[in-house]
Structure formats: C-alpha cells, structure tokens
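## tool: complex_structure
## caller: assistant
## args:
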Amino acid sequence: MKTMTPTVAFCRHCQSEISSPAVQSISRTGSRTGPGVPLFCCAGCEAVHGILEKHGLTSFYQLRDANPPICAVPMQVAIEDMHRDYRAYDEPGFLKAASSDGNRVRFFLEGMSCSACVWLLEKLPDFCTDVISARVNMAASTIEVVRRPGGSFSFIATTLNQLGYKPHALKTDESTIRLQTRERRYDLIRIGISAALTGNIMIMAVSLYGGATGELAWLFQIVAACLSVPVLSYGAWPFYRSALASLRLRRLNIDVPIALAILVGVLTSVVSLARGGTDLYFDSLSMLVFLLLSSRFLLKSIQDTNLQATHLEDDLLVGTVEKEVRSGVWAETSASVLQIGDRVKIQVGSLVPIDGLVDSGFAKVNAAVLTGESANLNVSVGDVVEAGCRYVSGDSVLRVLKTPRQTRLAGILKETERLAETKSKFVHLSDLGAQYFIAIVFMLATGVVLFFFKANPAEGISRALALIIVTCPCVFGIAIPLSMAMAIRKAARRGVIIKSADAIEKLWSAQKVFFDKTATLTTGKMTVVRSCYSKQSDLGILRGLEQDQLHPIAQSLTRYATTEGAAAVQFQSIEKLATGGVSGFIDGFTYKVRPLPGSGINANFGLFQNERIIADFEVGDEIRPETFRVLTWLRKAGLETHILSGDRKPIVDQCAAKLGFSQTETRAQMTPEEKAKVIIASGSNSVMIGDGANDASAFAAASVGIAVHGSLDVSLRAADMYLTQPNLESIPALFQIARSAKSAIYRNLAFSASFNIAAGALAIMGEMTPLWAAVLMPLSSLTVLLSALFSSRQFQTLEART
Amino acid sequence: MSNSAPSKTVETFMYDDDIVKKFTIATLVWGGIAFLVGIIAALQLASWQLNFGTSWFTFGRLRPLHTNAAIFAFGGNAIFAGIYYSTQRLCKARLFNDTLSKIHFWGWQLIIVAAAVTLPLGLTQSKEYAELEWPIDIAITVIWVVFAVNFFGTLYRRRERHMYVAIWFYIATIITVAVLHIVNSIEIPVAWFQSYPVYAGVQDALVQWWYGHNAVAFFLTTPFLGLMYYFLPKAVNRPVYSYRLSIVHFWSLVFIYIWAGPHHLLYTALPDWAQTLGMVFSIMLWAPSWGGMINGLLTLRGSWDKVRTDPVLKFMVVALTFYGMATFEGPLLSIKSVSAVGHYTDWIIAHVHGGTLGWNGFLTFGMIYYLIPKLYRTELHSVRLANVHFWIGTVGMLMYLLAMYTSGFTQSMMLRAIDPISGKLVYPDFVETVVRIIPLYWVRAIGGVLYLIGFLVMCWNIFKTCRLAPKHLEAEVYRASKMTEESNEPKTAWHRRLEGLMPTFSVLVLVSILIGSVIEILPTLVAHTYTPANSGVVPYTALELAGRDLYVREGCYNCHSQMIRTLPEDVLRYGKASLPEDSMYDRPFQWGSKRTGPDLARIGGKYPDLWHYRHMLDPRSVVQNSIMPAYDWLFDKKTNFAILERKLEVMQSLGVPYTDEDVRNAAHAARAEAEIIAAGLTGDSPIKGLADREIIALIAYIQRLGKNSEKSEGKK
Amino acid sequence: MNIIVLLLPIALTLAGGFAFAFVYSSARGQFDDLETPAHRMLLDSDIANESLKGQPHE
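## result:
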C-alpha cells in the first residue's frame, strides 16, 4: 500500500490543520497543482472561499490574518449545511412572527466571532441587492437585516448560510425583544441618574464629614437633600414596586427590607433636618440605591445576552412541500396548511412534515429523530411514513393521514416543553433563604422598638433602623444569582449555551451521566475506517460513482476519496442497483460498488471491475478522538457513566468496550421513551448528554440535559445546555464551572451569615449608628459581589491547567 | 447576486485631511518652541547668568510662556489634529464646514503668537495656565466656540449611529473646557492688556485651582484618552480590551473630576472641609484614571511582540504607563501628609512632567508617527530613526524626572529639618537648600535637551517622509450608507411614554438643582458678611498697588510663594501661618505654587529698604550664592502713576473699601509716598529722580507684605 | 468662602448636563450593544474611486 506522508497544510478558509492532502480548488484556469493554489480542508470551505472571491471580498482574509487570529472558533462549514432550504422564510406567516415592521428581521448566526466577520456581514448590502442595511450585534451574535421592499428573506438567509454563518430567524413578536431593550434602557437611565446624583451628594457629605460648619453646613445639607429626591424616588422605584407586589402576594421577597430601610431612613433624615439635627442619611441611602441597582443590572445583562439563542423559530414544523392542487398539477404550499387526504410529493433530502401513506415511489428513509436508529428503512407503496423522517434517497408521493399538529413528533415536542416548564418551578435557593432571613430580621427589629418604646423611643427607632439597614440579604439577592450569571458567562465563552441558572445548580450535585451513542460519543458521520486499494485511480472511480448519491454511506465514501486527493472520473451513465449500490460504464469496463456480505459491525463495500473485486472499504461510525479523555476525567471526578443508545446491540457493545463502559452500564436498541424511563428510574440527579434531535424526551427526564451540536432549535427546546462546538471538550469544563460556582456560593453564604449575625448584634446593642450601618451595608454587598466575581477568576486558572 | 449597484442610501464623501495636516505641522513647530523655552528656563535656574539681565528674557516671564506654549500650543494643536482626523473616520463624514476649520486653525495660531508676544512683555494675569490677558481670553472663547460648532456639526451629520467612546471624551473636553475658561476668566479690564479678576484672595485661589486642575483634567487627559481609544486600537488593529469598561470609566471620570481642585491648596488658608473634600475626591479619581490605563494596555494582549518592532506602539505603551504613574502619584500627592512634603517643591514639577512629557508628549509622538504615513499615503521615512527618537526621549525624560524627584526630596527634607533638642530649624538660611540642588538642575536641563533632540530627530524623519511622499495623488472618495433610523424606532405606545418621561424627568432634575441654587442664593445675602468686612484690614495704598502689579508683571510668583502653611517648618521659618484675611484684597491672589526662592508672605519689614534696593540691583551682593536674576531695568523705567486712579476705581468697584478721595488723588498720594522712600535711599543711590523709578513702588509693596493685621491695629 | 456659591451651581449644572446627555443617549440606544463598536471602529469605509481600489488605504 502507498503510505501518504501527512503534509501539514492549513485550510485557506478556516485555518484548521489539514493532515491528509487537501481538496485543491480547481481554479478557473484548470491548473490544480502549484504553490499559489489555495488548499481547503473540505468542500464547504472551498465553496465559501469561492463566493468571497466572486464578490471581491477576499480582503476578508487579510483583515482576519492581520494579527494573531482573533477568530478562536474555526469556521468549519459542514457540507450538508451548505444546501439548507430557507424557502419557508418567504411565507407570510413567518414574516408576521419574525419581523416587527415586515421589512426588518433579526437572525441568530452560528460561527460569528471576530472583526473580519463584522466587516463581511455588514458589507451584505454591497453584494446582496435584496438587503438595504445589515447591522451586527456581536455580544448576542445576531444580525439585523432590513430588506429592500420586495426583497426575499429566503434569498438573504441562503446568502448568509453560504458565507458560513448558519442563520436562525429570531422570534421577534412585538413584545419580547422590544420589551427587553426598553427595560434595559430604563434600568441604565436609572443607574445613570443615581450615579450622577449620588456622586454629587457625596460632595456635600464629604464636606460635612470634613468639618464644614455654620451656614455652609446647613446649605450642604439642603442641597444633599434636594439632590437625593430623584434618587430615592425615581431611582428606588423598582424596589418599591417589587416590594409592594410581594406584599400583595403576602410573600416576603428581598426588596421588602430594602424598601422599608429607604423609607424609614428618609423619614428620620427629613425629621432631623427639620429639627436642625445632624444625622442625615441622604448620602448613604442614595449610595445604597445606586449599588443595588448596578449589581442587579450586571446580573440581568449577563443572563440576557447568553439566552438570546433560546427564542428560535422552530424549523421543524414550518417547512414547505409540493401539494397536488389538481390532478397532475403540483404547487408549493406551507406544510401547516395541509389537510387530511391531500396528496403530497416529498423530494429526496427533505423532512416529512406530516404522517402519510405512500401512494407511489420507492425511497429510503432515516427515522433517527423518532427511533434514534441510525440505519435507513426502505419505504414503498402502502407503507406509512411518520412526520420527522428524512428522505435519504428516492422520492414518493404521500397521502396525508395526519396534519403536522397531530403527528407524534409534535406531541413529543409539546410534551418535552411541558416537562421543561415544570422543572423551572424548582424553588430558587436564594428566594427560600431570603424568606426566613427577612422574617427573623423583622421580628428582631420590632422587638427592639418595643423594648425601647417606653424608655427612649428615638434610640429604639435608630437601633431598629441600623439593624434593618446593616443586615442585608445581599448574599441571596446578589451573590447567588451573580455566581450563576458568571458561570453562564464562563460557559458561553467555552461555547456552551446555558438556558437557565437552575441547570448549573443541579449540575454540581449530579452523580450519574447518561450518554447517547450516535453523534454524541461518535461523530455520527459515517467515515471510512479501513480501506485497501491498489491504485489511486480506483479512488477516482469510487468518487465518480458515489459523488452524486445522497446516501450517507455514499457521501462518506466520496469524502474519503476527495480527502485522499483523487479526482472524480466522469462516467457516461450511472444507474442505481435495486439491491443497493450503484454501477457505471466507462471505456469498456462496468464498475460497480456493492455492499459485501459481512458479519462485522461496520458495513463493508466492494469496488468491482467487470464483477472482479479490485478494492474494498469498511465504513463505520468513528468514535470522537477526545471521548476517552473526557470519560476518564468524569470517572476520576466520581461520576457514574452510562450509554443509552437506539442503535443495534453489536455496534453499541463494541463501542462501549472500546470506551471502558461495563456491561451493566450499556443498554442498546432503546426508543427515546424507554431512555426517559431508565433515567427517571435512576434517581434525581442525572445528566443526559445526547444528540439534540431524538433525545428530546430523555433530556426532559434527566435533571440536566446537555445537547451536543445537533439542530439548535429543537435541542434547546428540551435540553438545558447546548454545545456549539461539535466535540465533548467543554463537558469537563462545564462541571468545573458548576463546582467553582458552588464553592463561591457557600463561601458567600458563610461570610454573609457571620457578617449579619455580628452586625445585627452590634446594631441591637446600639453600638452601631445608622450611619455606620449605611456604610457597612454597601461594603458587605461589595465584598460579596467581588468574591462572586473572584470565584470565576480562580476558575480561569483551573481552566488553564486542564 | 449581481455586483453591488450602489443603492440610493449609499453616499460618497471625502475626508478633509488638509486641516489635519496643518494642525500636525503646527504641533511640530510649536512643540519645538515650547521645549526650547522650557530648556532655556531650566538653564536659567541652573545658572542665573543666562537671564542676561534683559527684562523679556528673564525666568519670571519665560516660565509662563513655556507652560502656555506646551499646553495650548503643542497639546492644543495635537488634540485638534487627532480629534479632526478621528471624528471624521468615526462618523464616516466630512467635517461640518471647511471655512470654520480654517478659522479655527488660523485663529488658534494667532492666539499662540499673541501669547508669545504678550507674555515676555510681562502682560500677564499671573493665574497659572491662564496667564493670558483679557483680549486673548476673549479670542480663545471665540475660537473654542468655532471649534465646538464645527465638531457638533460633524456629529449631527454622522453616518454611523453609534458614537464611539472617543467621541464622548471629545464632547466632555469641549463642554467642560468652555465652562472652566469662562468661569476663570471673569475679570474687569483696567487697560488694553491689564485686568483684575472679580474674585480675591482665597476665593480666587479656589477658582484658579478648580480651573487649574480641571484644565489639566479636561485639556490634557480626556482628549488624550479619546485619542488613545482611537489610535491605539487602529495602530495594533485589535479591538479595545473592554468597551464596556471604557464607557463606565468615562462616565465616572466626568461626574467626579470636576471636584478635585482643592488638592492644590492643602494646608493653606483654604477652610479645612474644602481641603478634605479635595483630598477624598482626588483619591476617588484614581479608579477611573487607572481604568483607562488598564483598558489601553490590555488592548495589546496577544500582540505584544509588535511593540518590539513598531515605534508607534512603543510610544503609546510608554505613554499609557506614564499616564498610570502620574494618575497614581496625583491622588497620593493629594493626601494631606504627603502634600505637606511635596507641596512647593520640585516633586510637583516631576509629577507634572511625568504626565506631560510621558503621557501627552509620547502619545502625541505615537499619534504623529501613525498619522503622517496615513495622511501622505506613504511609508515612514525611517523606522530606525523613530526608535532612536524613542530611546533618546525616554532617557531624557527619566533623567528629568529622577533629577526633579531627588531635588524635590532633598530640598523638602532640608527645609523641614528641625533640631529636636533646640526646636530650631537645622537649615535656617533658605539659600543653603538652593545651593545643594543646583547640580540637579543641570541634570534636569540635560534631560530636557535630550528630549528636544529626540523631538528634532522626529521632525527630520517627518520632514523626509513628507518630501518623499508621492505628490498629487487622486483624492480618496469613500462610500458609506446613510444612518438608518434606530431599529425599533416606530412610534409605538411605549416610545411615546419614554418621550413623555424625558421632559418630566429633566424638569425633575432642573427643579432639584433650582431648589438647590435658590436656597444657596438666599444665604449669600446673609453670608456676604461672612468674611468680617470690618476686619480692619487696610487695602493697599496706590503706590503699593503699583508695586504689586510689577510683582505680577515680573512673574515673581513663579519662584516665590506668599502662603505660610499651618506646618511647624513654615511657621518657624516665615512666621505666623497666613490667614484668609491676609490676602483678602489680593486681585489676583499671589499664593504661588513653587518655592524656588523663600516664601514672602511676611517679608514686610524684615529687611530695610536699602537691602531690597541692593538685592534687586544685584542679588549676589546681598545673598552670597543666590540664583535670582538681576532686575536692573526696574531702576531705569518710571512707575506709571497716571493709571493708578483707574486701577483704584476698578478695585473700588470690586468691593475694596477705597474712599472716592483715595481714588481721586491716587497718583498724588503715590508720588508723595515714593518721595519718602526715595529720601531714605538717596545717600546710597546715584540715580537722580529715584522717587518715580519702579523699584521704589516694588519696595513699597514688598515692605507691606504680611503687614495687613499690624497695619489694621495701628489704624484702629 | 462664599465662592462656593458660584462653584456649586456651576458644577451641579455641569453634572446635570452630563446626566441629561447620558439619559438622552441611553434612551436612543447608544449603550444597547457594547461589544460591536469596538470592532466596527477598526473597519474603514471602503473606497469608491476605482483607480485606488487595489491600493492599501487606511
């Protein structure tokens, strides 16, 4: 056999290392070799490079390579992603849902990461005439496109996709996004005002502390009082509102003591100002408001930017399909409009939106979404095809039995959504803690007031005030959510989208981890595992025969041949064989590719020249390179690992053996419902890691569901976390993030408990004046805030080590 | 996808780079002059002979020329060049109006020339960094308005919706400098080139240093931060480290900076609470300033290797480091105990030049090395020369700073040294401390010369670059689409409510500020009697006032302070600590900020007239190794008695209790008093008609210093 | 020290002015997206005149 010396070259487009000789772009002049010709790691990159070249946008590469690569994420373009169908975006229904004024749509883009991307995307109007303006928001990795009146969004979406940025239209019904930005601006204005006025009130306060006396001191007190009016009314409004709301529900949330402290503080200050006293708290109260507002804002903005991906238009049910309007006349309509009894033509490669009875045609169908089974099923006249199956080869005409809404798949998705809803009802740790904390503080405060009521009411009030101000539930209000928010931001930086903070909370107490096999432990793409052939030209023949077939095995063979650098041989005629495989005739020989009867787990295929075998290839599902390292890390961290797969037993056992799973930990041929049962049976703290599409019910059952790089929209509906990188590298990091967030929270809890007890005692004994209370309180929340932030920094060093 | 047919929203436009070229060239020209004048002044301190006894070349008049030239000519032109260049790029639009730009350029250069003429002639207001007389003040205001109109016009016509943080820094600069300049320049003209400020004494001190510090803040920090936020990311082609941090540190800087003034007057006659206020706010300023430095330095993460080869980055990194150093040293110096050591000594000079030479200078050089190749569309003539400039400049700067730190500490320690047993000053004679630090003045001068040499190397490099640049290239025409309306702009219910909120809210803020100011105005009517008017302090006589104006003209405040601090070493050396009443009628206040020579607050009566007469004629004849220049032109020029009536009239209108009769025969009274003093000196002076020579008026003023309280008792 | 009477309102109006500028600009969405501007400022508007297309410009 020829040994190929691996030439280490870099793909011109996505800069990832190419070990085997790369796909050479057949430049227009036809010359293939030579140094100048750019190399690509896959056809996808080659296509994107071609588009850029066509519109003269190649300075994109200079921009990006001008300095050390800012693009940490390689922009690999999967071949099957290139031909996604966006015709659905022209539907009126879509426009109503996705666009506020009909011409403006926001897309969530996968793969945007640097200035060069911003430059390329914002030049969209220059080379895509349907677009008037395109504006990118990197934090949320979204792009807002305004189309020319009459321009088509499907054309825009296809352009975006061909540039390598997979677009998902964002559901922008009138309220969500608009409400979000408006609320964010309101909060920002409140913070700005409080900051400006508190800063200036501090001028008066410092002068008073510095010893200004006489008329000037009185003047400063007046000005401080006036300046604090907007802060304590407009700035503190959210606290009053939420306190009122919680009181109306007869629940105590953390805003009640804050609102009370402010009101009592203002009252005492105004009274003492009128009486010419000196203990005024305008400066500390406005400082209190400003600090709380800004920490809350920090919390919300971190969470908002990361959850942008979760409002996604679901691609699954909104597809278009050709319906027979009159006998022999086919028209394109949206799937949601179909009625029972309509006749529908399903093309190869499209998703079946309805349950249907096959009227005519012979085809192969992949029902992985439903059964989790990766092998394809043959479907001919008389068979029933369920919604969610993908036509792998051939096409057929179906008679509609169930409309999209009534299909089993829709049922599953609705079920998983309901399950996800119930999970978030989990009472948040911080609300629970706050309830008890506030109750205790109130009892103590009233106790103190009553105790001093007879002897010296003023002293009683000032001690109670000091107690209420200094004992701050800040650890519940700030630290816990902030640690969670920092964890979410850390995960996002590792390319993991986390839907809600609860998932992290449950992750740190997880004990069992369940893996799905196809596309999670393995790459999910059929790849040539072993091959033996005599001449390079054999590969050319193989590529010529298989490159036009859509069957995944055919595509894997083509990919193997192209990566080996063989040029496709042009056959005059290619026919599909009824028994599977394909044959072609050229200069006197008939070449056939046929499956070989083999007992092994993987499928073997032979290349025949006039019925004489000249080469054979074994195609199997390749295990991801990093899987073993991840599994050992998890086991070392004390987690039980299990496999739940829908695949045939022999395949699953072989893979389990390779990865060190024991017999009891491996189960095969399971439907999604069975998987869910097993997980529920395994107890509460379980983690399910699987492919987004078919493990929806399993995700819902597990306490934490992590979807590996499947179809984004479906997986995010069911799973709590979504890995944007197609590998398991970020799983160990995820557990570390959860663990460091947990340690930070416990540290804060301990600090806050001890601080509150000590400060509370001092306040009750009268050692602490409300002034000192007002100073200590923001200090304590600051330390809690910083320790929550600090935990993420400490995590970074941890991350650097792994 | 056909190639782009430019739809109607895309417009073409050209940047106005000529004005940027003009301002850059002006920066180089005035930079050289400012540094040269600085070196001359430094050499004059090292050896007094270099004053050549000529009035317009003496240190007292050259130092203000150096400060104004360095800040407003060099710094001013640099920020205008940088602002005009970056604003156009950030707004994707040409400047608002070409003629306005030209008026702005030529107007500013005219102001500089006027300053270069008036300051050496002694026509000064003696308020540091605001010495220029009132006609020039008015010209500055006019040109600044022209600049503001041109800048905000460009913003109005911008094609990029978001205003990058650099533009916010420019906005803060323009608005605040305007307010500062106007508030600090409220003066009543006495003659074409003389005026008296409205405030007096301690009030004038607070306003001057409220202006002084914020001129540094909003003329030498915020615009340069804006330039850094534009030119550094462009030079290293990397986004700024954290854009969010830059927004936060901008807004915190803007809200607090305005209050840091009083830290220039620690331990002086300023009330205690104001000193604490200044101290606290200066320390708080440390955070936003370092926020800027950190944001700048971390922008280079991942491309630090480029700093080795690219001179632009080398300059900018050192500039940022010096910015961090100076803004750390500032808050440190504003702590009262540290200020007790540093104030009035060379340590302050080291702090100032750390900031100016390091931060402003090096950032401007970095910017110019980046700008010139871009403007002339060519490569820099020689990168090696740029590196040579960098190393010479850095060595020069370090020599300057180390020399000043050493001389500052030496002098301060010597002046403060009190013998624990006897309780007396170890170095009672001020000149002992001066002699000790002369060598350091030489080292500083050499450092300055190196810095200038580096600068000249740059000028040569730039000159060659411009000459070799390809001539008459086709001007670059740019394309950018018009600014689209804000995304969710449609006037929905919530938007109207927000619009509704805006007026109600601004009314709220206005009302609260009005209440504040109304309540303040009330106490003023009461507080007017705050400073005891009947404190019995007798205002200056006409002759003393004439002598005071000579003191201002010769810039004696550049080396002598008139403020005895409430510290043991000051009180032991100079007498009772100064009270606010001592400088009640001083318009402008002469507290001074540097003690190259001893404090003069209570010099009156300490030495006989003859001592002063000989001292001014030839300082060495009286104080053996004094470095004070000789003022022999005071013995030739005649005092201008005629204008005294006008001066007293203006002072009277400002509240100084002169009677109408004093005002009417001011000249006559002054001549009479001069005759008495001259009579005492006739035996020893060969000059005929000594009475009307300027020296007599100066002696009258010097003998009056510190006598306010005694004189008032005598009167009562 | 009645100069404070002059400085205080000036400083407060200045602060009030900047507060108003902050409110107005945040209401118009200046601070909605705090990450892209840092990248966008690096990109220059492209040249329209054909002859200079190839030339490296700023």
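## assistant note: The first helix of chain C runs from residue 4 to 27. Chain C is about 50% helix and 0% strand. Handing back to user.
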